[in-house]
């Protein structure tokens, strides 16, 4: 099977998976995006920058996070990943088929949420760089979780741990002024997204959190490659 046919096959399988898993789509995509879109209409939350940041972190952690790891975990349980590996599907083909839909779900959130919440974005290029990169980080974290997990249950437990961290750290950054907390948040996987909404016009592309974001992406790409190679070794 050539490269084009393999890509067509894995994308077809992915579409069939999404069509047959309405519950997962509702829980990881429909609920977080829909609920926060409705909450943005409440006057107390409308125009609230911190709440917009919290909403985006939660949506990323579900649509680009838990959704990915739970999808891979189920494929491992049903031996679908083993079948794909044995059929010759390459790492980038499998990862592309996994990434494309969660990424599009995240794009729908970070593109429209600022207008929903009535928050003016001072620099859309910087905002888009941070939003796209943060979504990618969540995807890569959960790719690794899904590939290393033994089952969907294990994948969901670890991915919801990442959800908790992603939503607790911004609260700590907002409540505490200590240097240690700021340092931890800056160098965390959501540091750039958190700092951007704290500083807005004062945020600079040279901020430490941008460097941390790049390091997270590079490190997670290496980890994802190792995780897929480990699965290939296990199933060949």
Helix coverage percent:
over 70%
* Portion in strands: under 5%
How many domains? The number is: 1
Q: Tell me, briefly, the overall form.
A: globular
Q: Report the order of strands and helices.
A: HHHHHHHHHH
Low-confidence stretches: none
Output the number of helix runs. Answer: 10
What is the tally of beta strands? 0
The value of Rg in angstroms is 18 Å
Biggest sheet details: none
Terminal Cα span: 18 Å
Average pLDDT figure? 87
SS class:
mainly alpha
Transmembrane segments: 23-43, 49-73, 94-113, 125-148, 155-173, 210-230
Keywords: Membrane, Transmembrane, Transmembrane helix
Protein name: ABC-2 type transport system permease protein
Describe this structure in words.
The structure is a single chain. It contains ten helices and no strands. With 236 residues, the chain is mainly α. The protein has one domain. The longest helix has 29 residues, at 49-77. The chain crosses the membrane at residues 23-43, 49-73, 94-113, 125-148, 155-173, 210-230. This is ABC-2 type transport system permease protein. Keywords: Membrane, Transmembrane, Transmembrane helix.
């Amino acid at each position: 099977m050539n490269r084009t046919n393999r890509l067509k096959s894995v994308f077809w399988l992915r579409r069939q998976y999404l069509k047959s898993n309405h519950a997962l789509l509702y829980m990881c995509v429909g609920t977080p995006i829909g609920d926060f879109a409705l909450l943005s209409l409440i006057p107390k939350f409308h125009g609230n920058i911190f709440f917009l940041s919290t909403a985006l972190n939660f949506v990323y952690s579900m649509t680009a996070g838990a959704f990915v790891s739970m999808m891979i975990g189920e494929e491992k349980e049903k031996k679908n990943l083993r079948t794909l590996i044995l059929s010759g599907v390459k790492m980038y083909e499998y990862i592309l088929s996994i990434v494309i839909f969660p990424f599009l779900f995240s794009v729908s959130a970070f593109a429209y949420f600022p207008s929903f919440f009535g928050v003016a974005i001072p620099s859309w290029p910087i905002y888009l760089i941070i939003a796209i990169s943060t979504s990618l980080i969540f995807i890569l974290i959960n790719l690794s979780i899904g590939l290393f997990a033994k089952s969907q249950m294990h994948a969901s437990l670890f991915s919801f741990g990442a959800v908790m961290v992603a939503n607790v750290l911004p609260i700590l950054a907002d409540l505490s002024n200590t240097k240690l907390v700021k340092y931890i948040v800056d160098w965390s996987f959501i540091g750039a997204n958190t700092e951007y909404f704290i500083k807005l016009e004062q945020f600079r592309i040279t901020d430490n959190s941008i460097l941390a974001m790049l390091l997270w992406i590079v490190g997670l790409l290496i980890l994802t490659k190792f995780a897929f190679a480990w699965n290939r070794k296990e199933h060949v």
